[in-house]
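Re: that chain you flagged

S.,

Sorry for the slow reply, it's been a week of failed gels. I finally had a moment to sit down with the sequence you sent. For the record, here it is as I used it:
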Amino acid sequence: MKQYNLGIEATLEIIGGKWKALIVCLLMSGVKRTSELQRSIDGISQKVLIQQLRELERDGLVRRHVYQQMPPKVEYSLTEYGVTANKIVDVMCAWGRENIALRQQQGEEIILMENKESVLDSLPLDSIIEKKENLK
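Prediction finished late last night. Pasting the structure tokens below so you have them in one place:
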């Protein structure tokens, strides 16, 4: 029997690490191919991206659809359960923006690229709210 001391341990087991929350965030805007995700995540290798996607799929957050064609085509999307992770991602994004602002006020030279064609900015808030309400 698996045992956790705190609920956050279970959360971090599923979306912890350097890339998983970012992958979930990117998939909030819709279906993506592996190459689209890789272009959107600076510094991630294809091997690591696929590994992270497979783990998210195993944990029930991501759906993988393989098209039987040549060349092979694979698309990823969030499951209904995966959409529920948006609550956590929203809080993480807000905290990150506040953290960057604080560090800027303290004199650190740091910029937030989010305003430069951000995936988060392109997400229609109404559709996110609608997805959340459909899960209730």
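What I noticed first: The helical segments are 7-15, 20-27, 34-40, 46-58, 80-83, 86-105, 119-122, 125-134.

Talk soon,
D.
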